[in-house]
Structures are given as structure tokens and as C-alpha cells.
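Progress against Task 2.4 (sequence-to-structure conversion) is shown through the following example record, which the project officer requested during the mid-term review.
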Amino acid sequence: MTDTTTTDENIEVTEAKVAGSVPAAVLDPVKKKKGIGFMGWLAAGWLILIITSAALADFLPLNDPAAEVADKRLAPFQPGGPLLGADANGRDLLARAIYGARVSLIIAFCAVMIGFVIGGFLGLLAGYFRNWAGNALVSVFDILLAIPQLVLALSLVSVLKGSPEPVEAGQAEPFKLPVTLILIIALGVVSIPLLARITRASTLTWSQREFVMAARAQGATHGRILFREVLPNVLPAMVSIALLGMAIAIVAEGGLAILGASVDPPQATWGTMIATGQSELQQAPFIVWIPVFAVFATAASLNYLGDVMRDRFDVRESAL
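C-alpha cells generated for the chain above:
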């Protein structure tokens, strides 16, 4: 009797597995959700350290990042001097790295939020409405993705900054956007097609699921289906790519700084620290190593946590 019951249950589970209606916990009761692991906690710890330090920089015992505080320059670990040494202008590298983290993270976060909101919304529409409008949006995404991101960002920064024309005496200076805002807009535009493409790929999958079909059959509006049924299931994929997008934005800001298209001195970002340290690279390479390590560790942490979230929520990108 027990063998017959067990056999019947196995048959039912097998049939349901083929139909795709059995949860993973039923098919494999031993399988458990994996934690983020040691590397995940290490990545999260680094991000928490960087974000907390950048947010509380004004309350930390740090020197003015723009002031000359060291007599001996281009020397690391000075006794009684700055902890990580000073650059060619005698400025504290630790203070500049922490204050620069604030600007770099703000630029990356705000830029990705632009792509998250605008690109996510356009990706939802392109994946849900499979008509001429959706195809037109896909064509726009493909065109923007075909342009190298650094070239597109540099072009946008150049256009938004305008030409530095001298102002004659008695004339008011023309209105110009803050450079930080220009970088946010430029990198935000660059991130829109990336977020939109991933969102569309996930929307294509979820918009054909049974619960969406049922909501459509019951007369639910397109807006309700998009934001109540599809969007909650697409969000894990969007957040996963947004973390990767922040890493890309941080690296892109560094590239723009090397090309002279980032914030104006003495304001610091990790990119501007790399750019200003190029001339002393052979004499004092530690000046560049500090921001390079910060960029590398932050980008790697964001990328790893994005992969962890993708695996944990089973984000599918096959529809790309």
C-alpha cells in the first residue's frame, strides 16, 4: 500500500513537473536558498564602509581635502602627517579619497536612478506592447547601445557644458548647470538603454505567464497588469543590473576625468585623483593606487552582489 501511494505521488510530481506547476521546494525539498557567502559579506562590508565614511565625512577627524596640510609631498605614511600620504600639492590623500567617494557614489547612484526609472518604464512598455511602438523603442535601445558608452557620455558632457567663453566686464555670467549634475545627466542617459533592454527581456517572459493571462481575461487594465502583476516580478532583474550599472558609472566617471570632462579642481572624485596623479605616476605611484583600488573594490563589490541577487532570485536573461 505504501509503495503504491509513493508511486502515485511520484507520478503526480513528474506530471506536474512537466507542466511546470510544481514549486521548486516540492520538487527538491532538500534544496535550500544559498546565502551570499563569505565573498558576499566581504563585498557588502566594503560598500557599507565606503558609504558610511562618505556620508559621515564631515564628522570624521579628516583634513580639508582641498587644503595643503603636508610639508613633505609625494611621500606615503608620513610620521605625524597624513595617514596615506599627500599628493603633489600637499593635500591629504585619505581625506580626498573619502570626500571623493561621496561625489563618485552620488554621481553613480543618481545616474543609475535615471536609467532605472526611465529605462525601466520604457523597457516595460517595449516588452509588454509587442506592436510598432514597442519595436520602435527596441530600435532606439539598439542604436544607443551601439554607441560606445564613454564616447556618448563625453559627447553629452561637452554639449551640456558648452564652450568656455570669456565674460566681458559688466556682463552677467551665463547660466550653467553644475558639473556634477551634468555628469549625472550624461551617465544617466548612457544607463537608460542598458536598464531598458534588461527590463524588456524580463517583461517578455513574465507578460506571458498564466496569472497575467488570467488578469487580462478578467478585464484588468494594461496599467494594472504592468504595475501590479509584471513589475514586481521584473524588479529583481532591474535591481541586479542597476548594481552593475553603478559599477559601470563609477568607472565611466574615472574615464571622463582622465579626459578632462569631470568635476573641476579642487573638488575631488576618484576619477580626478587618478587624473591628477598621472604626472607623478613614476615618482609616486601610490597617489594613483589609492583611488584605483577604491574604484576596483567598489566596482567588484557591486558586480558580485548583483550576481548574487541574480542567482538568488533566478533572474533569467535568455530572452535577450
